[in-house]
Amino acid sequence: MKTQEIENAVFQALQKYNEMNKLYTVAEAAEYHRVSSRTMLNWIHQGKIKASSPSIGNYRISHKDLTNIK
User: Does residue 34 belong to any structural domain of this protein?
Assistant: First the structure.
């Protein structure tokens, strides 16, 4: 394999890793699912989607949880 091919493969792997480990805001998660931010908050409060709260009133949703709605 050429050096450029290896660099491209590593770059693509890192992009996928970053995407899978991204934390989404409520607004970003709502946009992903094409619902309102209010609906996303309702889903969080109802336990339909798992979210962490680094501070009061602020939620973050992992990519894994974003794609795993109950």
Answer: yes
Can you state the percent helix, strand and coil of the chain, rounding each to 5? 55, 15, 25
pTM: 0.70
2 located within any domain: no
Measured distance CA(70)–CA(52) in Å, rounded? 16
- Counting DSSP H helices and E strands in the chain, the numbers are 4, 3
In this predicted structure, the answer to whether residue 9 has a pLDDT above a threshold of 90 is no
- 3 HSE (CA, 13 A, CB side): 0
Write out the residue range of the structural domain in which residue 60 sits: 20-70
The type of residue at 13 is A
Q: How many domains does the chain have?
A: 1
